[in-house]
Design brief:
- The structure is a homodimer of 239-residue chains.
- Chain A is an alpha/beta fold and 239 residues long.
- Chain A has one domain: putative 2-phosphosulfolactate phosphatase (Alpha-Beta Complex).
- Chain A is 38% helix and 20% strand.
- In chain A, the strands form three sheets. Chain A has a five-stranded parallel sheet, with helices on both faces. Chain A has a four-stranded mixed sheet with strand order 3-6-4-5, with helices on both faces. Chain A has a two-stranded antiparallel sheet with strand order 10-11.
- The two termini of chain A are 19 Å apart.
- The interface between A and B is medium-sized, with 23 and 23 residues.
């Protein structure tokens, strides 16, 4: 199985996704939030690029979620903290979500055969889903404003590691960037929270009062839930 | 000291190099070759972008070196193997060098305050020189045809590690990509040759009969020689 890892959304060329499985990774926090919402019974998360589009799409009973530069958008029900997307808040509801990077990554990947959402919390499950789909796979690290983010790279490395553990080393082929990310993950695996708190986004989130979010997002394989894009919304992937 | 690591030449914006020290890294093989040539008494290495420019610049007594896609250029004295640049071959001579990636990286960095050449073989020495120059520093991984190359990333990680060892951890600040490269280096440090042979360029070079080059380029801190760009040529950096 061939898995290419891409450092940022802006490096991703959407034509290269044709006939492939794309895993979008935005650990802090968009994909961690989408996974958490679906895990808590949300019907579907609709990722959109702009605030205006989010408001246009919202129908009676929908929830609006999202952030710009880590801050909740005025008039929205939620920000982009996974802790807000509790069962009480989202069960049976649809969420329209717009974030600075992660939802853009999903939008850019729509030419892919299937688009999955990955994070540290569902790394093994998303690895299994990608194997199950039997396609060449691209892991897109969302990054931040077109700059590489360490937490996304480490998550890509973990997903590669999970795939290699399932298929065997010789069956997991990746590009040089993927090899580097896997090395970076292996070096950091015993102190992931500290590593996330030392990188640009982690420092920023801690400073903005979101330490609990970083703690949640730094946990590995806490859920089997894998979001997959069906038409315009992320829903639970079913084998 | 702030050290930014950039994944490929095409990501480097030359205006961002103003007033900074730039370390260009092309482990396989341009910077390893330039270091080896100067170590062996070569007067200076002139990096140029094109074959035509190399031929135009060559004066009586100069040597022409370079490659395109790993192969020696017809009519040139040498290819891009550091093993060719022996003391017998280069002492007292000037070399005009053109390679696919590394010399392009040096050309792109000319707006910097100083341009140094780094590789695994001189990592500690180039770290010391960068500290000595007391500027914000950018490590440019040359990559291959605008794609990230693992060996350059690992070398960047080693240079960061050397700087942290000299200045102390709290005095070495880097970007998320730098943190990832340092992790990747630390994970691979006890089997660097195997790691280089597992990445795209290493595999290609072994297949093309250049295993001895990879072996030479995978050795760490075998020389104190640091090339620095003076006007149009790389010469030995003197403190």
């Amino acid at each position: 199985m061939h898995i290419e890892v891409i450092a940022t959304i802006c490096e991703a060329r959407s034509d290269e996704f044709l006939h492939k499985t794309v895993i979008v990774v935005d650990v802090l926090r968009a994909t961690s939030t989408i996974i958490t919402a679906l895990m808590n019974g949300c019907k579907g998360v609709v990722p959109v690029e702009t605030v205006i589009k989010a408001k246009e799409l919202a129908r009676e009973g929908d929830l609006l979620g999202g952030e710009r530069y880590c801050k909740k958008i005025p008039g929205f029900d939620f920000g982009n903290s996974p802790l807000e997307y509790s069962r009480e808040a989202v069960q049976g509801k649809r969420v329209i979500l717009t974030t600075t990077n992660g939802t853009r990554g999903i939008q850019k990947a729509t030419k892919a055969d299937r688009v999955l959402a990955g994070a540290l919390i569902n790394a093994k499950a998303v690895a299994e889903a990608a194997i199950d789909l039997k396609r060449d796979t691209v892991i897109v690290c969302a990054g931040t404003q077109d700059v590489f983010s360490l937490e996304d790279g480490i998550c890509a490395g973990l997903i590669l590691d999970e795939i290699a553990a399932i298929l065997g080393e010789s069956q997991m082929m990746t590009n040089d960037f993927g090899l580097a990310m896997r090395g970076s993950y292996l070096e950091a695996k015993d102190r992931l929270l500290a590593t996330l708190l030392a990188c640009t986004n982690g420092k920023k989130m801690k400073k903005s009062g979101f330490l609990a979010d970083v703690e949640l997002c730094a946990k590995v394989n806490t859920t089997d839930c894998v979001p997959v894009l069906e038409h315009d919304q992320m829903v639970l992937y079913q084998r």
